[in-house]
């Protein structure tokens, strides 16, 4: 990149503080196996976009989402009563 006069993108912290409120909600609902689309009042495509951003920001996929949230201080198991 340097030879082409470009710089790499700055690394962003991989934490839930980088997630929007809607992304956090979609991630929490998904981990708890709840219907995120119905709970958020959007369609499945919108939830897919939200989760795609979550996976990219946290560097994980659906199978590692719960662990990624725990590693960043957002344990989905502790959120059950916060709906």
CATH class: Mainly Alpha
Radius of gyration: 15 Å
Rounded to the nearest angstrom, the distance between the terminal CA atoms is 46 Å
Quaternary class: single chain
Number of helices: 4
Number of strands: 0
Share of residues in strands: under 5%
Fraction of residues in helix: 40-55%
* CATH fold-level assignment: Arc Repressor Mutant, subunit A
Globally, the shape reads: elongated
Give the H and E element order. Answer: HHHH
Would you identify the CATH architecture?
A: Orthogonal Bundle
Number of domains: 1
- Class by alpha and beta content: mainly alpha
| Overall mean confidence score, pLDDT | 82
**What ranges have pLDDT less than 50 throughout 5 or more consecutive residues?**
79-83
Largest beta-sheet details: none
Features:
0% strand, mainly alpha, 46% helix, 4 helices, disordered C terminus
Give an overview of the whole structure:
The structure is a single chain. The protein is mostly helical and 83 residues long. The protein has one domain: Orthogonal Bundle (Arc Repressor Mutant, subunit A). The chain is 46% helix and 0% strand. It contains four helices and no strands. The protein is elongated.
């Amino acid at each position: 990149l340097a030879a082409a006069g470009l710089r790499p993108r700055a690394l962003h912290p991989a934490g839930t503080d980088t997630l929007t409120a809607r992304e956090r909600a979609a991630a929490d609902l998904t981990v708890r196996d709840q219907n995120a689309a119905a709970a958020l009042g959007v369609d499945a495509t919108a939830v897919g976009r939200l989760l795609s951003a979550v996976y990219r920001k946290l560097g994980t996929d659906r199978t590692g989402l719960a662990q990624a949230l725990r590693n960043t201080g957002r344990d989905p198991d502790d959120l059950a009563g916060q709906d």
